[in-house]
Amino acid sequence: MSALTPPAGSASGSLRRLRALARALLSLEDDLALVAEAASGPEALAMARAHTPDVAVLDLQMPGGDGVRVATALRAELPGCQVLIVTGHGRPGHLKRALAAGVRGFVPKTVSAGRLAQIIRTVHAGNRYVDPELAADAISAGDSPLTAREAEVLELAADGAPVTEIAERAALSPGTVRNYLSSAVTKLGAENRHTAVRLARDRGWV
Predict the structure, then answer these.
(1) How far is Cα of residue 143 from the mean position of the Cα atoms in its chain?
(2) Quick one: which of 8, 111, 137, 187 is 20 to 30 A from 18 by CA?
(3) Statement: residue 9 has pLDDT above 50
(4) Residue 130 shares a structural domain with residue 167
(5) Is there a single domain that holds both residue 166 and residue 128?
(6) pTM for this structure?
(7) What's 158's domain CATH number?
């Protein structure tokens, strides 16, 4: 079985530890082989296209696109490649987005090397594995009140961009953007769009 590991470009100590553990365990497992590593979301897609791994192990947060978006692209282009996401955040909305994207595994970066090998095999077999604590948090948090468009516009507003810029990036009119932002703020019970972004991110809804 071949595997693509998380991006190398992250500064996260836990991710570096995970990658080191992945290398170590793969060198000891006869049925697991590391075929590529990537430094960003786009590079992960390029490496996957070049090496067609059986399993892609993706970081939820990576340069050039989050793991869920990369997973969505992978599942569309390489349906035979199963995806496992590792995360240091574990916010409820992230898990639900990942499962909706066809991700087969969702685990914290604190997972042990031996356990990671077992989960890779589980995912490769077409089964699903979700860390029990992350699953419990997702169930207790409930579903996002935001529509897909509201979440998209709110995410575009995260860096403080003006309405006109958000409108251009989302291919919407400024008035429509204001309406989406106002609706998102109201649904989240926030004081303003900046607070709404923070609340939505804390829950993993954007």
Answers:
(1) 17
(2) 137
(3) no
(4) no
(5) no
(6) 0.66
(7) 1.10.10.10
What amino acid occupies position 115?
A: R
Provide mean pLDDT across the span 76-105.
Answer: 85
For residue 33 the two structure tokens come to 């082989």
* DSSP 3-state of 195: helix
Q: Residues 102, 33: one domain? A: yes
128 with 56, same domain: the answer is yes
Please indicate, yes or no, whether residues 96 and 152 belong to a single structural domain of this protein: no
Q: Are residues 132 and 176 in the same domain?
A: no
Residue 170, domain extent: 148-202
What whole-number distance in Å separates Cα of residue 83 and Cα of residue 62? 15
- Whether residues 68 and 166 share a domain: the answer is no
Residues 16 and 51 in one domain: yes
The average pLDDT across 83-99 equals 80
Note the Cα 51 to chain centre separation in Å: 21
pLDDT tens digit sequence for 152-167: 898 898 888 899 999 9
Q: How many domains does the chain have?
A: 2
> Could you tell me the two tokens for 185?
């703020």
User: Contacts for 48-54 with beta carbons within 8 Å, 24 or more apart?
Assistant: 48/4, 48/74, 48/77, 48/78, 48/81, 49/77, 49/78, 51/2, 51/4, 52/2, 52/78, 52/80, 52/81, 53/2, 53/3, 53/4, 53/81, 54/1, 54/2, 54/3, 54/80, 54/81, 54/82, 54/124
CA distances in angstroms from 102 to 9, 78, 94, 98, 120, listed in the order given: 25, 12, 13, 7, 15
Give the phi and the psi of residue 7 in degrees, each rounded to 5: -60, 145
